[in-house]
Amino acid sequence: MKGSDLSVLNTAWKQIREAAGVSFILFRIMVPVVIVVKILNELDLVRYIAEAFTPLMSLVGLPGEMGLVWATAVITNMYGGIVIFASIAPGLHMSTAQITVIACMILVAHSMPVETTIARKTGVRIRFMIPFRLFCALLLGFILHSVYTLGGFLQGEGRILWEASSKDGSLGSWALSQLQNLAAIFMIVLLLIIFMKILDRFRITRLLNRVLEPLLTSMGIGKAASTVTIFGMVLGISYGGGLIIRDVNSGKLSSRDVFFSISLMGLSHAIVEDTLLMMSLGANITGVLFARIAFTWIVILGLVRIVRKMSDEKFFRYLFRSRSRNHALSDDSL
Questions:
Q1: Distance CA 11, CA 71 (A)
Q2: DSSP 157
Q3: Could you tell me the residue range of the domain that residue 235 belongs to?
Q4: Fewer Cβ within 10 Å of end Cβ, the chain: N or C?
């Protein structure tokens, strides 16, 4: 075998191992969730859970069952929400607009235990970040639902990539369908990893950085924080948050710029990877990319204007954990 062939095989094997590692982490969370949902279905308890979520979901034009999907994504991660979506959505005959709405809500608010922990390590208070992201997810969902409904857009039945419902209703058929879903998720993860490598190889990520930098500057985010914010927007909050934690510890960024950057990344991060993932469910790009970025720009622009006018005392008391001696006593609080 030629050296070039070995190099290709080694590269391919490396990507497969990376995708397997990521998928294994996801499956450890998702498999128990899937089993719990199956038990809830068998006991006919999903209907009662849906009824509890119905008032909230009706605000964004969704069936109550989508509340369980969103709650799962918020508590676990997007993939956990996707599996529950695949288990419940096929029988609901949702429109493309509805799929786009729930996809956007998941994009804005998911993996909260992990991502809010990262935010807290940068100094942003959890008592701000959690309500902020949940409220923004509902607000974006309401706006999209209103626009799609009033304009009559995307009202046809959506095409769902994964359908977890079994044909004969047996436990074996259900288990097989879940294995197929997990295999599909592994393939999606693998393709996304390869796609991101291609973007890096052809320097498209750098192009995105240049496009996004003027956008951040127009919001009022300082130039020192714009680079790490762009990394978070393109690659994910874990990457961006990690860089910000590093820069916070080195004293390169002001507290307010850190706050604005993390708030922005909370609403829009991994804009390439996560957008493609939601589109594979049947969501429309007008919502999961264009509307989400426009919504983020408007919200953060307003947030910057408000917070710039706040006194340091209020800022450090309610929004950010000060690292100065004057506020040392409040550092351990939420």
A1: 37
A2: B
A3: 3-330
A4: N
CB atoms within 10 A of CB 300: 24
Q: Tens digit of pLDDT per residue, the chain (334 long)?
A: 555 666 767 777 888 887 887 677 667 766 887 788 778 778 877 777 778 889 999 999 999 999 999 998 898 788 888 888 988 888 889 999 999 999 999 999 998 887 888 888 889 999 999 999 999 999 999 999 999 999 999 999 988 765 554 455 678 887 887 787 778 778 877 876 787 678 777 877 677 767 777 878 788 787 777 777 877 787 677 656 666 777 777 777 889 999 999 999 999 988 888 998 899 889 999 999 999 999 999 999 999 999 999 999 999 999 998 765 333 333 344 5
User: Which residues have a Cβ under 8 Å from the Cβ of 180 and sit 6 or more positions away?
Assistant: 162
Asked if 115 contacts 278 with a C-beta cutoff of 8 angstroms, the reply is: no
**C-alpha angle 103/109/114, rounded to 5°?**
125
Q: By CB neighbour count within 10 A (0-12 exposed, 13-18 middle, 19+ buried), where does 208 fall? A: middle
Q: How many domains does the chain have?
A: 1
**180 within 8 A of 83, measured Cβ to Cβ:** no
For the record, the structure tokens of 252 come out as: 């390169």
User: What does the block give as tokens for 57?
Assistant: 């979901």
CA distance linking residue 109 with residue 269, whole number of Å: 11
Residue 319: what are its φ and ψ, rounded to 5°?
A: -115, -30
C-beta of residue 99 within 8 angstroms of C-beta of residue 49? no
Quote the pTM value: 0.79
